[in-house]
Amino acid sequence: MEYRFSDIFRYIKPSEIRSLLKYTSDPELISFGGGMPNPESFPIKEMKEILNDVIDNYGKKALQYGTTEGLDPLRDELAKYVEKTEGIRAKREEIILTTGSQQALYAIGKIFTNPGETVITEGPTYVGAISAFNSNKAEMIAIDLDDKGMDVDALEERIRNFMANGTKPKFIYVIPTFQNPAGTTMVLDRRKQLLEISKRYEIPIVEDNPYGQLRYDGDPVPSIKSMDDDGNVIYLGTFSKVMAPGLRLGYVIADRQIVEKINLVKQGLDLASDSLSEYIAYEYLKRGDIYRQIPKTVSLYRKKRDLMLKSIAEYFPEGVKYTKPNGGMFLWVSLDEKIDTTRMLERALKAKVAYVSGAAFYPHGEKHNSMRLNFTYSDDDKIVEGIKRLAYVINEEMEV
Ligand code: PMP
Questions:
Q1: What is the value of ipTM here, to two decimals?
Q2: 210 CA to middle of ligand 1, Å?
Q3: Is the CB of 204 under 6 A from ligand 1?
Q4: Among candidates 355, 353, 349, 351, which has minimal Cα distance to 334?
Q5: How far is the CA of 104 from the centre of ligand 1 (A)?
């Protein structure tokens, strides 16, 4: 059979991370590649109790189809949670549950972009956002970030150039807190400036915040959504890093017009998110389990971050640059300009260590000498051994 696939597959490429997964069955491989939470952070005991109670108390509803926007009591609990943790004030009607925040990214691409239209991202940015926006054939422009977050002056200049040519980007996608992949956090001044730019040019901001509660040191920085009084910010949250990613539950907080459009897209994707997961998340919030679980996860990950940073300082060659994140799950390593980390990956896999090369995090693979390392998943001894192996690989590559 000769299948006639749609043109879209010229734009959709497999992610390097997915391809790496085939190596994860090798028990010798130490992988800093995936973005997985450590299973030790899962609230197993609490989940068992909640699951039993959910089946006993709401079984008939929890196993039934739910509404597309999600369970009302969960949306009310979420409103309280985001107010408490992020200072965001939201009404039930401004919240929609999604199947992971990944689905929200796809839906947002779908509701805003016609093929070929521009969206702005950070450079580097989340690889799953690149896939989601690619599925709608959006043209992505990456604005560099540094250790203070996205370069908002460069952003404004870029927008002005677009306007001079009679076009305007459809939205600006940012992960301001503990960025994936860079680990950096956008400072308050830049957040305010970004919001000003959004208002001035009427371009919405998509604020993706899966890691905000995983802070290991430093003071919290207000979410952009908490400063938004005019519907400029579309906020994405998820239970993946504060409960468990297997439940596939995320949410969007935005102006009702946006929520209604996402609802329509979602009707065509999966009708509704998983009812059982929604009841579980509802109880997890209502009982306050979430507030007891987060500090445990934070102290587990803080130790792992410290260990990876210490090992890098000890074993990596002079001149290698890396970010020192205050939270989240990743750090970003920049090597000598002459090194191509995509090419180096083969050498790394032979040495039984994996990472994701930096090019994967640029819409057009612009930069070649960086890599993302995940510090949350591996056991402590593996973190040290993996960094030693990687140091060996980098040294070897520098000699070529
Ligand atoms: N956005 C970012 C920045 C992420 O890092 C992730 C997960 N790695 C997601 C969205 C998607 O998360 P989920 O679908 O599990 O909610």
A1: 0.99
A2: 6
A3: no
A4: 355
A5: 10
